[in-house]
Amino acid sequence: MTSPNPNAVGSGARRERGERQAAAIDLLDRPAVHLAEDPMAFRRIRMHLGELRQWFDRRCRWPLLATRELIRLVKIPAWTRVGHGLPDLQHPLDYELFTWVLWYAAGDHSEQFLLSELVVEIEARANAAAGERHVDFDDYVHRQAMVRALRAHERLGTLRRIDGDPNAWMNRGEGGNGLYEFGPLAYRWLVSLRREGLERLLARDDPATEVAVETDLPPRVRLYRGLLLDPAVYRADDPEAFRLLLDRHERRRIADELFDVTGWELEVTGAYASLVRPNGSAGRHGELFPARRARTDLVLLICTAVHEAVNGSEDVEAPGGFGRSAPAKGIGAAWRCGEPDNQGCVVLTEAQLERLVVALADRYRTYWGTTLAGHSTAGLLREVLEEMRTWDLLRGPDAHGCYRILPLASRFRGQYAEEPAEPEDLGREPADPSGGGRP
To answer: For residue range 15-32, what is the model confidence (pLDDT) as tens digits?
Structure first.
């Protein structure tokens, strides 16, 4: 009788763990995994379904739904965050109409239906609930919002367009009365929230205000949800949950467990914690930062300039984010900002941020595509704010009109391979801080 080969056993265990990690990442990165669209991923999750269901329930209190057609991990955040939105949806009405489409699906519309039938039902029900002409599809802006909602559903797979062109409907052209049917995910997309959670959401004066989805979640559950869903967990946001990471042994246990399930490394500083994916792990189902687009370049340049203005030009990172170091060089030297606050954030006025955007545009505009390069200062500032909010690198403005660059931004730096020549005077004030001094 021969003894087993320990290398063969180790190789098999590593292969099994890799398969389980890939299954977990599919669940985290995708709204759902469909058998018809990706049978390999579907079967991989099925193979580890019991183990993954138990882990996500224990650590995150997330249900894992499985049918013969699809598998969905219901990823409920601990806090409402700006970056949790859908990229196709731009305005509150877009989200409202997106939800009304799901309401229509819940009304036993299992057969194919026409767009005209859908919009008549939505308009009538929305106006009965919120008042006359709250939704009015004679209004072009409302039709635009409806088309964005339809596109978001098509991208998610909750809705399938069989025929027709929603743009033609939006523009009142021919061929606009499209034919649709719901996909199986449409009946499993809505999540039930407790009444008190909905009341907290409705009570907000500022839609960007972060609200706890559930008030009785244990700190560990909040921590795991934040690490798996958000770019970072900030100590200032949830000191109780972050305290778990301050104990060296507990931090090691959490890091080992998360690596075992996902293959991602836990990074912890004094101000934030985040999960770092290996290079090349971005698949077609999940976008990671930094993305390959021009406005991300601009965000990286801003992170670099803030780092240089605070830390100096040395490639170092303070334990909690932005630190204090040697005198700065380049744009970071010509452009001024204050020292980090006690939470590791750099506070900027809108004029300071606009001045930095002007300086960077003067120097790097030739590296950008025609769309971004053609923006005014105000347009560039809007792009920057949207991108940095999406990745939780910036918050604000507050009541005083100030923005906070969050500690995670200190981790990122960007530069082009061939740096352009220095402008003569990057330190000058723009003629009009509100947007008049356009590059």
So the answer is: 899 999 999 999 999 999
